[in-house]
Amino acid sequence: MEKKDLKAGDKIFVIYRNPHAANVAHIKEAEVVQHPSDEDDLAMFLYDSYHLLTEDDAIFGSYEEAEVLYNELFDIEQYQ
Fold it and tell me: What InterPro entries would the database entry show (predicted)?
């Protein structure tokens, strides 16, 4: 999914790494919103904070899409 395809109000899914524990990541739902200080740009609202949306952000239209990459990145099967 690309930033140019998004509009305010869209729900997206992101793989979010915990900034306090580098080895902890979760798939989280976020909302695309109007950027609070630039009306010509969009941001993502996640954990009660605004995050800039950039072209290289890995954003997904569904949880299942995010889960595929999450499983590849964190090689979930090796732990099962």
Answer: Tscrpt_reg_SplA
Question: What does DSSP assign to residue 79?
Answer: G
What pLDDT digit, counting tens, does each position of 7-63 carry?
999 999 998 887 788 778 889 999 999 998 888 899 999 989 998 888 878 899 999
The pTM (predicted TM-score) of the whole model is: 0.81
Whether 31 contacts 43, CB under 8 Å: no
Q: Please name the CATH architecture into which domain 3-73 falls.
A: Roll (2.30)
Write out the E strands in the chain. Answer: 11-17, 25-34, 42-46, 49-52, 59-60
